[in-house]
Amino acid sequence: MPKVSVCMATRNGEQYIHAQLESILLQLAPDDEVIISDDSSTDRTVDIVKGFGDARVRLYENNTFFNPIANFANALGKAGGDYMALADQDDVWLPRKIRLTLAKMNELEGMYGKETPLLVHTDLKVVTANLEVVAESLWRFQKTDPQKGVSLNRLLVQNTVSGCTIMMNRALRDIALPIPPEAVMHDWWLALVAAAFGRIGHVSEPTMLYRQHGENDVGARQWSLFNLFRLVSELGNSKRDIVRIRKQAGVFLQRYSKLLSARNREMTGIYSRLGEQGCLMKRYYILKYGFFHTGLVRNVGMLLIC
Questions:
Q1: CA R_g for the chain
Q2: What is the C-alpha to C-alpha distance for residues 206 and 125, in angstroms, rounded to an integer?
Q3: Residue among 20, 210, 177 nearest 84 (CA)
Q4: What is the pLDDT of residues 248-301, one digit of tens each?
Q5: Can you tell me the distance from the alpha carbon of 269 to that of 237, in angstroms, rounded to the nearest whole number?
Q6: For 158, which DSSP code?
Q7: What is the domain class of 4-211 according to CATH?
Q8: Start and end residues for every CATH 3.90.550.10 domain found in the chain
Q9: Which string of DSSP letters, residue by residue, matches 67-128?
Q10: Helices 235-256 and 296-305, interaxial angle, to 10°?
């Protein structure tokens, strides 16, 4: 029986971690495991985890990353399973999450083989801090496309993979680690690697309650025409974000230059250096390589600030 490792990064999560860990353990097999990497929590997070007294939970405490990317990478590195599922500390998994993502993973492995880096992600329900449903589908809420959004040219520009829903196989974990500090987020880096060297599959059914409580590292923001005006009004911040995203692409190119196909190597290089081009050439390359976001409004905003 394949072993699943659930990898969770924690820091000061006492308010919600009990419900999350409980929802995970209820659907794990006896030989599965939960790897928890705690990043210097100063509240009762560690005590709550230890209080479960479950042999499947492996806690690594006293880390001093002060960084969720490094914390997740640490958990991934310690996982011993055939498949790794990422979990945030403040959500709640729905009962079919492992079953659905594992079934999709098995389908992909049947098509592409176990040695191919594979990633599965799913839709989510957006909920309040008290688990009241805000949106039945994050994908509809944010107007993202789980199919078009996971090609490498699209992922260089915008991440459409929610890390808290990810399941990956060992082949992806091994080629993706270590995650560099220049990565915008761990899930974005994992999605880039999967798109470049393997396959990404999705499950349309929401598999978890994505809790919004004001302290999320990323969070769910509904996309509308209002966001275009906000994007333009916060032009300085938007351009800084774009510089950071292009830097991520440059580091990705450095790491995997010898492994990338000729086209993907060229495309990634062009995107990483897009800031060196004049406005007309930027738009030319955006159109040539399809460096598009999901949705017309996002692309209009991108062309306005490129």
A1: 19
A2: 6
A3: 177
A4: 999 999 999 999 999 999 999 999 999 999 989 999 999 999 999 887 666 666
A5: 24
A6: -
A7: alpha beta
A8: 4-211
A9: -HHHHHHHHHHH--SSEEEEE-SS-EE-TTHHHHHHHHHHHHHHHH-TTS-EEEEE--EEE-
A10: 90
Contacts of 23 (CB under 8 A, 6+ apart): 92, 93, 94, 95
Tokens of residue 140, six digits = 């509809």
146 neighbors 139 (Cβ within 8 angstroms): yes
- The number of angstroms, rounded, from the C-alpha of 34 to the middle of its chain's C-alpha atoms is 18
Say how many CA atoms lie within 13 Å of 260 toward its Cβ: 21
Could you say which DSSP state residue 165 is in? G
CB 7 within 8 A of CB 79: yes
What pLDDT digit, counting tens, does each position of 70-117 carry?
Answer: 999 999 999 999 999 999 999 999 999 999 999 999 999 999 999 999
Q: Tokens for 3?
A: 């072993």
Cis omega (within 30 of 0) for bond into 178: yes
Can you tell me the distance from the alpha carbon of 255 to that of 288, in angstroms, rounded to the nearest whole number?
24
Q: What is the pTM of this model?
A: 0.92
* Tokens linked to 137: 């589908």
Q: How far is CA 71 from the centre of its chain?
A: 14
At 134 the three-state DSSP class reads strand
Which of 68, 91, 99 lies closest to 4, judged by CA? 99
- Is the four-CA dihedral 139, 223, 293, 183 of positive or negative sign? negative
> Is the separation of the CB atoms in 167 and 120 below 8 Å?
yes
Using the 8-state DSSP alphabet, how is residue 156 labeled?
Answer: T
CB 255, CB 180: distance < 8 Å: yes
Pair 189, 179: CB distance under 8 Å: yes
Q: Where are the alpha helices (DSSP H) in the chain?
A: 17-25, 45-51, 68-78, 97-112, 138-142, 152-155, 170-176, 186-197, 225-233, 235-256, 262-272, 279-289, 296-305
Q: How far is CA 75 from the centre of its chain?
A: 14
d(CA 234, CA 231): 5
